[in-house]
Amino acid sequence: MNIPDNLIYTRDHEWILVEENMATIGVTDFAQAELGDIVFVDVDTLDESLEKDEIFGTIEAVKTVSDLLLPISGKVVKFNEDLEDAPERINTDPYGEGWIIKLRIADLSELSNLLDATAYQELVAG
Q1: Where does the pLDDT of residue 126 fall: very low under 50, low under 70, confident under 90, or very high at 90 and above?
Q2: Across the chain, where does the E strand assignment appear?
Q3: What is the pTM of this model?
Q4: Which of the four pLDDT bands, split at 50, 70 and 90, describes residue 8?
């Protein structure tokens, strides 16, 4: 299982790449493997400001539909439109072409409640 050191993780199996006040968010390698073949991603919160833990979209796999929860507060400024035609990119490249949204971070201090790669590794191993 791939858990890059340069990312921050949530207990809900999402990853965050922080660049200044912007965050790129997707689901982890562990999450995509658990979901199975991803067939659809829906994000209808573009240009909306949301609070931490609010639903920003859904991800549909062959066997289930799961809500996507915002790990930190902010404004959804971009959706990876490539996922509309190729949602399977989340399965094949979860940390690259499979990113889901970009978020303008409202409160950088919320990042301190998230997991580094070592803590996330312990979570999924346990």
Answers
A1: confident
A2: 8-9, 14-19, 22-27, 38-42, 49-50, 55-61, 65-69, 74-79, 101-105
A3: 0.95
A4: very high
Does residue 117 contact residue 12 with C-beta atoms inside 8 Å?
no
CA within 13 Å, CB half, 3: 19
- Count of residues in the chain: 126
pLDDT beyond 90 at 123 = yes
Cα distances from 29 to residues 21, 73, 91, 113, in angstroms, run 24, 23, 8, 21
Q: Map out the domains of the chain with their CATH numbers.
A: 8-108+118-122 (2.40.50.100)
Strand duo 74-79 + 101-105: pairing: antiparallel
Share of the chain above pLDDT 90, in %: 98
- Residues paired with residue 23 on neighbouring β-strands, in sequence order: 18, 103
